[in-house]
Amino acid sequence: MDTVHRATEPVGYSLPLSPSGLSSMITPPPWHFTGDVVMVDYRVDPAAAERFLPPGLSLGADPGAAAAVFADWQWCSDSGAELAEPARCQFGEFLIFLACEYRGAPMARCPYAWVDQPVPMARGWIQGMPKQLGVVHQTRPRPLGRAGAALTSGTRFDGVLSVFGHRTARAGVTLTERTEVRPALHDVPLAHTRLFPGWLPGEKPLADLVASEVTDVEFGEIWTGEATLELSAEGMDQDFASLAPVEVGAGHVFSYAETLRGGRLLD
Amino acid sequence: MDTVHRATEPVGYSLPLSPSGLSSMITPPPWHFTGDVVMVDYRVDPAAAERFLPPGLSLGADPGAAAAVFADWQWCSDSGAELAEPARCQFGEFLIFLACEYRGAPMARCPYAWVDQPVPMARGWIQGMPKQLGVVHQTRPRPLGRAGAALTSGTRFDGVLSVFGHRTARAGVTLTERTEVRPALHDVPLAHTRLFPGWLPGEKPLADLVASEVTDVEFGEIWTGEATLELSAEGMDQDFASLAPVEVGAGHVFSYAETLRGGRLLD
Amino acid sequence: MDTVHRATEPVGYSLPLSPSGLSSMITPPPWHFTGDVVMVDYRVDPAAAERFLPPGLSLGADPGAAAAVFADWQWCSDSGAELAEPARCQFGEFLIFLACEYRGAPMARCPYAWVDQPVPMARGWIQGMPKQLGVVHQTRPRPLGRAGAALTSGTRFDGVLSVFGHRTARAGVTLTERTEVRPALHDVPLAHTRLFPGWLPGEKPLADLVASEVTDVEFGEIWTGEATLELSAEGMDQDFASLAPVEVGAGHVFSYAETLRGGRLLD
Amino acid sequence: MDTVHRATEPVGYSLPLSPSGLSSMITPPPWHFTGDVVMVDYRVDPAAAERFLPPGLSLGADPGAAAAVFADWQWCSDSGAELAEPARCQFGEFLIFLACEYRGAPMARCPYAWVDQPVPMARGWIQGMPKQLGVVHQTRPRPLGRAGAALTSGTRFDGVLSVFGHRTARAGVTLTERTEVRPALHDVPLAHTRLFPGWLPGEKPLADLVASEVTDVEFGEIWTGEATLELSAEGMDQDFASLAPVEVGAGHVFSYAETLRGGRLLD
């Protein structure tokens, strides 16, 4: 049998496997991120939020606290090689965060997430972040001109998400003042469920409750302001609709960086 | 602890998990497909092909046989609900197939695949098909007019793939005659490696050699013809480049349907 | 002055001008088209329709008659060269037609149009068809499999349009029977206003009322059926909203080809 | 005839015309722009450059001087309304500039341009800028983190353009120092040919040599550095290929704002 002559088998951190491993769509962590964030605090029905929490997580000290987050990212692996390819190293993202608690420690649960590039989508599934593909646009700081968006009182930052051609989310933040306070739900660990769906007869899915391990967090200037938020149920299901805002709180605009190193098992 | 009051936990065949399971990005199999195919047989260096085969698979009776396949698909779950959403139920695909053998049975190995929609990409990862996101266009049969593409001798069908803005593949088939012979590499089972990358400290990836279970195969009119094929290494790695055509064979244009029901473990 | 030495100046049917003229984005007419159409007859408020008609056009014999048309096209110039490039020669389109009359002759006016490729958009502006860029998807005939869409009684064909991430139009046709009757608003000349906006100080725009000159019309099998149609004003203006359906009529599914040769001046 | 009862006719600065004029795809100038620019000076064969100049323009004092410009823009009309819609008010652009002269005044000619949004494409055609649709990505300044791109010596900024799935242009600038010197070809008026192609029998195209009228120019920090530039002829014509770099000069990274107010006729 000819296979006995092979010194190697195809390898890779992810598919596609290939002789050298270079074809792997995903590079192994750590992954370094830097981005501009437009974030809106809001509140959902606590009972609705609770239905999104797996065993092990509870609503915690502030039931119903939630956030909608637009972020415009640039990322790279340890080699930094991706940075030379702006078509690969940039993506837009929209996330929903729900406040929760694990063994008394405050965390955030991400029930829905959309990105506009396939690599971060696939990376989401590896870590348990439920990233789908959508169309994301947001205002970024731009210092010059009448069409600019300076980081100053009165400037408005917007974010919009479309999913399969439906306008699904829209957020707006009009800056009022600079602050040193980090937005609460952007400053706690994320608790995800890693899930590998079953495919073989009778197979149960692999499902782990994990927390993301993040280092090298940096916040740039943090601005706060008045916010608006609309989530549309058109084209979405009743579960997404159950997380509609019952109250909209403050908005936050800031730049941010972190390194995502892997996960640790909860429970 | 509040979680004891919950009657349910979030569920779903895939992420995102949600109270009812409706938010799952992927519906459970079976998945029904119907498509138009433009396919080109070609040959690669057998030693290069072998380096893409995992233990358990060998080159088989025709070492170096390969095919490049463009397909324009429509799909649905058992409910058929997706068919009402043309933005969701259609996608384009480009595949490479390598001839191989498992315990004496001819099979095909798919070392590279690109689709232009996220749902088939994620579905690929569940079954072990290494689908990435690309831009795919191909000629489809069109009976009318000077701009048409009738299924008749002399008509040319083309397919093009771009990946991150690089033209990666181009195939052309000029029809010569109708045939009853099914293209060999489109008529054997596929042997995939299901891979769930490691994320936890020291974790080994889940990796299974599996075969796809397909039923309800239908071929429409099959046309054969003269073919061209170019695979470009620009923007790709040396592993992809090692599968460049050393010889180009016949082309095939046909419509095709199948139902993909799940996988079975090999070994 | 060096320019006196030049034998040539840059040329082209359209921009970009270049030494040989090969860089012109648009090839000169005639342009040949072949496509699959999903069309829904409907009625609008006749007064609203009339406000979209320029002097010279009147509502005609059937005030308020309108149609929404999804079409999936392939096109080429006389050379046919574009057909070898499936990324260039295909596009999706959504049109609204309003019934009207010019000097007693029935015509159609297209107040709104969207395509998903830049070449047909620019070509629209040359002929006076108000084409913008949108995301268009529609069901095409597919004979095989459970996910197919056979041209037979009971099959449903859908079309969807999204504009800047808003779902703007949705049509559905469930086939009931084959017919020989050509859909009325797809079988009359189109009356457009060619408009070249002013740019120089005090310049008045060039504006001509023209009719499109079409030859080599072919209809394939025509199927009729029950239809639904929704036009959404979300993200659109009050003028678009004024053409909302007050009644939805029959649907039509057919393939079609034509050659567009240029325009003739009306008035 | 019913048209005598109409008080109004459909209006608009551009197509689509509509009762109120609100449907016009393009708002009338002025248009305000703010952007981040990655620019590379280079040299082309002067004879090739000259073949792109219409009568009235000559090569001027520095024959063969050229520049490749990637820009990431945000724009708005006088109302500023577009700024609330990040999906509408942002676009990426790639331009080529050729040095030229009009009656002794230095100007720039833009033989090729690509943008990634339809509104700036159509606006280009109104002013005579030959904008086509492409896929544009570029590095923007990002102050934080290992994946960042700080405005400091040693940071690299890249830009890539793809057209119909071919990688057409790639530029890179590695910053060396801050400067007060404005890049020459980004600081002169642009001379365009406004062109409205013929459509009626025997019609000659409208063609005017015009200069753009720009006010409110602002430059942010200007950084200069070492540059690379590749233009690929794959998928392009011989005219584009004739402008390939024969020498690559300095690179520039800066932010920039301007207001475009209209055009004035040359000659």
UniProtKB/TrEMBL annotation, chains A, B, C, D:
It holds the Pfam family ADC. Gene3D superfamilies: Acetoacetate decarboxylase-like. InterPro entries: Acetoacetate_decarboxylase (IPR010451), ADC_dom_sf (IPR023375), Endura_MppR (IPR031022). NCBIfam families: endura_MppR. This is Acetoacetate decarboxylase family protein.
